[in-house]
C-alpha cells in the first residue's frame, strides 16, 4: 500500500510538473477528466445554457462597425476575455459568436474609438486589451493576437518606473500622472507573466519574465496588500507613496491571481501560487454575504458603470485558479468551485430577467448594462468551467 502510494505520488508529481512548466497551450482534455464530466454533466450543461442565452442577449448590444459593446472601451476588452474563457471550455458554443467578433473587434475597435493600436491615456485600459488578446491567442492559436498584445504592452513597459521617487518604481494609472494604483500594476504583473510563458525567448530570453519579477517585487513592497490580505485602491502620492487606504475593489482582488499562478509556471517557485490562494480565500471570506454571494461595496446604488464590471473579473480569476493552479489544497479547490456555483445560481435565480443580468447578484434584478451583463457572465462561464 505504501509503495503504491509512493508510486502514485511520483506519477502525480510527474504529471504536475510537466503540465506546469513551461507554459503549454491548454487542451480541453486537461480540464475535464472524463469521470468528473460524467458525474456533473447536468450541472455544467445548465450553466452553459445560461451562458449561451445571456451571450445572445449581450450580442444585441454589440456593434460590428465599432467592434465594441455599447461603445464601452475597457469593458469591451473584458467581454472579449470572457468570451475567450467560454471558448476555452465550450468551443462549439462560443465559436458561432467569436469567429466573427474576435477579428472584427481587433480590426474595428481602435479606429472607431480613436485609440489607434489600442493606445489611449490610461495604462490600465491598454493592459486590459493586452490580457484580452493573450486569451484570444490561447484559444485560437492565431499569432496575430499575441503579437498585438506584445505591441500594446510596450507602452506600459516604457512608462514603468517614471513614478515619483518615493514610490520606488511602479506604473502610473494614467498618462496625465494623476495616480498610482493597484489596478494598472496588477495588470502589468499579470500581462508580463503571461507574455513570459508564451514568448520565453522573444524578443530575448527573460524579456517579459524580468518585468514580471520586477513588478511582483515592487507590488509586494508597495504596501497595497493590507494586513487582512485585501488589496486597497492605490498609493498616497502626497504621503510618501504609502497605501492610500482607499476602497477594496473586487477586481483588484482578482487581476493579480492568474499572474501569480503563471509566475509559478515560469519560475517553478510555488510561493507565487500560494500567495494567490491566500489572497483569493481572504476575499471570498471578506466580500461575500451569508449566502456566499460576492458584492462590490458600492452596491446597490453607488456604483458607476466602471464599478459594475468589477466582480466578474474576480470570478474569472477564481476559475483560472481552480483549473490552472499547480498548487491547490483540496479544500481550497472546493471553496473556489462552490463560490462560482453559488454566485452563478444566485445570478440566474434572483438577478436575471429575460436573460438580462443586473448589478446585484443576490437580486433583486435591476436593469442590465453591458457592464453588469458581462460581469455576471464571467461568474456563469466560471461555474460552467468548474462543474
Ligand atoms: C472585511 O474587511 C474590512 C476591511 O477592509 C473590515 O472592516 C470588515 O470587517 C471585513 N469583513 C468581514 C466580514 O470579514
From TrEMBL:
The keyword Cell inner membrane does not apply. Residues 1-20 form the signal peptide. It comes from the Eukaryota. Keywords: Signal. InterPro entries: 6-hairpin_glycosidase_sf (IPR008928), Glyco_hydro_76 (IPR005198), MUG_Protein (IPR053169). GO terms for biological process: carbohydrate metabolic process. PANTHER family: ENDO MANNANASE, GH76 FAMILY (EUROFUNG) (PTHR47791:SF1), MEIOTICALLY UP-REGULATED GENE 191 PROTEIN (PTHR47791). This is Mannan endo-1,6-alpha-mannosidase DCW1. It comes from Lachnellula suecica.
Amino acid at each position: 500500500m505504501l509503495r503504491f502510494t509512493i508510486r502514485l505520488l511520483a506519477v502525480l508529481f510527474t504529471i504536475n510538473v510537466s503540465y506546469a512548466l513551461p507554459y503549454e497551450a491548454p487542451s480541453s482534455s486537461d480540464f475535464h477528466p472524463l469521470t468528473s464530466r460524467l458525474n456533473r454533466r447536468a450541472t455544467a450543461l445548465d450553466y452553459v445554457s445560461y451562458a449561451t442565452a445571456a451571450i445572445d442577449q449581450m450580442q444585441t448590444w454589440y456593434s460590428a462597425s465599432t467592434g465594441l459593446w455599447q461603445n464601452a472601451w475597457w469593458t469591451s476588452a473584458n467581454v472579449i476575455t470572457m468570451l475567450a474563457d467560454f471558448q476555452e471550455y465550450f468551443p462549439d458554443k462560443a465559436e458561432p459568436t467569436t469567429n466573427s467578433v474576435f477579428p472584427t473587434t481587433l480590426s474595428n475597435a481602435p479606429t472607431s474609438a480613436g485609440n489607434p493600436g489600442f493606445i489611449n491615456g490610461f495604462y490600465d485600459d491598454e493592459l486590459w486589451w493586452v490580457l484580452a488578446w493573450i486569451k484570444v491567442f490561447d484559444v485560437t492559436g492565431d499569432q496575430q493576437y499575441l503579437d498585438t498584445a506584445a505591441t500594446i504592452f510596450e507602452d506600459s513597459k516604457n512608462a514603468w518606473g517614471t513614478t515619483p521617487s518615493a514610490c520606488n518604481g511602479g506604473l502610473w494609472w494614467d498618462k496625465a500622472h494623476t495616480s498610482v494604483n493597484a489596478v494598472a500594476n496588477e495588470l502589468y504583473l499579470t500581462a508580463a507573466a503571461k507574455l513570459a510563458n508564451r514568448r520565453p525567448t522573444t524578443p530575448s530570453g527573460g524579456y517579459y519574465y524580468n518585468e514580471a519579477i520586477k513588478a511582483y517585487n515592487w507590488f509586494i513592497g508597495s504596501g497595497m496588500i493590507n494586513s487582512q490580505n485585501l488589496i486597497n485602491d492605490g498609493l498616497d502620492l502626497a504621503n510618501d507613496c504609502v497605501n492610500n487606504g482607499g476602497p477594496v475593489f473586487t477586481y483588484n482582488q482578482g487581476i493579480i491571481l492568474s499572474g501569480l499562478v503563471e509566475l509559478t509556471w515560469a519560475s517553478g517557485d510555488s510561493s507565487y501560487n500560494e500567495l494567490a490562494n491566500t489572497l483569493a480565500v481572504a476575499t471570498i471570506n471578506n466580500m461575500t454575504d451569508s449566502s456566499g454571494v460576492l458584492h462590490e461595496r458600492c452596491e446597490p446604488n453607488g456604483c458607476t458603470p466602471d464599478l459594475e464590471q468589477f466582480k466578474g473579473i474576480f470570478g474569472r480569476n477564481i476559475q483560472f485558479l481552480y483549473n490552472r493552479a499547480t498548487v491547490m489544497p483540496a479544500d481550497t479547490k472546493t471553496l473556489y468551485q462552490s463560490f462560482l456555483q453559488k454566485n452563478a445560481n444566485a445570478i440566474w435565480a434572483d438577478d436575471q430577467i429575460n436573460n438580462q443580468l443586473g448589478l446585484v447578484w443576490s437580486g433583486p434584478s435591476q436593469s442590465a448594462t453591458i457592464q453588469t451583463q458581462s460581469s455576471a457572465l464571467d461568474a456563469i462561464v466560471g461555474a460552467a468551467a468548474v462543474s
